[in-house]
Amino acid sequence: FFICRTDLERVTLIPEEAEDMWHTYNLLQVGDSLRASTIRKVQTESSTGSVGSSRVRTTLTLCVETIDFDSQACQLRVKGTNIQENQYVKMGAYHTIELELNRKFTLAKKAWDSVVLDRIEQACDPAQKADVAAVVMQEGLANLVLVTPAMTLVRAKVEVTIPRKRKGSCAQHDKALERFYEAVMQGILRHFSFDVVKCVLVASPGFVKDQFISYLFKEAVRQDCKILLENRSKFMVVHSSSGHKYSLKEVLCDPAVTARLSDTKASGEVKALEDFYKMLQQEPDRAFYGLAHVERASEALAVDILMISDKLFRHQDIATRSRYVRLVDNVKENGGNVRIFSSLHVSGEQLNQLSGVAAILRFPIADVSDAEEDSSSDED
């Protein structure tokens, strides 16, 4: 993102890359006002009375009603009613704006809370970019993934049927395997930008990863593929239980990987969630999840690390959303660390299974349900 202008009521932003659309999706709420350039089909009448139609570019200001985000294409469409006079569109008429890269838009809100302001700050930080790529594979299946601070994007899925080895003949198996490796290699060259990517994780069960890396660099030498040869040091081979996208979580938890990726936000989130699960097993009175439990811990000034999904801040009920914002503000005010997880990230998907909010506490607190049972037995 590039910030053009900001004041107390509105901010003007220019989305510079696909991930900025995800940030915008998290900034927008029903009832906001959005001003942007858009295409509108208008009817025209000639001097002879014949009616035609043409597409014109105009700038509209909408009161936002629905927000539609396509996570694979990173496209954002916003539907609402026109709230400012325009020569082509009547007041109150419906229109859908598709936000475009490198075209500015202005967002106005009735109230700007700390979560929204932090999101803008994070989105405009040039250091927060997609610097990790991964190839999660098994024989015949590979997922090529970009890991950004905000999301896990599957850029390509390669599937090739590999026949089994036959007794006395491996030719068909070996040919299919070579075809598979070639397709993965082409996917890497097409979808990974080595100017940005600092590390490429190649993960699989068994020896598939090692065989693929051997093939990749033999081919790079044979084809004189300079981009692969110059970036060889960025490739890191690690174990995964399968070639499916969900195996990326265990890959990012690998201690060797976390050491290599210590400067990335994605790795920090995975580690925080891993620490939470360890705490839940070892000291359950210091690991809370669910809004009511975590709020109680926050009131007792006990929250050390708060993990909360960005999905919760997209809640359309203002009172509910304010409750989550208040929790974040309270934890920060009391010296706690807040990590907002992306629901498009593998770690965020896992956090959403815990109601989207969890906390590691500074000191143990008796479980809320235990405390309630104790109080009810006292009444008896």
Automatic annotation (TrEMBL):
One of its GO terms (cellular component) is cytoplasm. GO terms for molecular function: metal ion binding. Its main location: cytoplasm. GO terms for biological process: nonfunctional rRNA decay; nuclear-transcribed mRNA catabolic process, no-go decay; nuclear-transcribed mRNA catabolic process, non-stop decay; ribosome disassembly; RNA surveillance. SMART domains: eRF1_1. It holds the Pfam family eRF1_2. Keywords: Cytoplasm, Metal-binding. Its cofactor is a divalent metal cation. Residues 5-125 form the eRF1/Pelota-like N-terminal domain. It is found in: Cytoplasm. Belongs to the eukaryotic release factor 1 family. Pelota subfamily. Component of the Pelota-HBS1L complex, a complex that recognizes stalled ribosomes and triggers the No-Go Decay (NGD) pathway. In the Pelota-HBS1L complex, pelo recognizes ribosomes stalled at the 3' end of an mRNA and engages stalled ribosomes by destabilizing mRNA in the mRNA channel. This is Protein pelota homolog. It comes from Cyprinus carpio (Common carp).
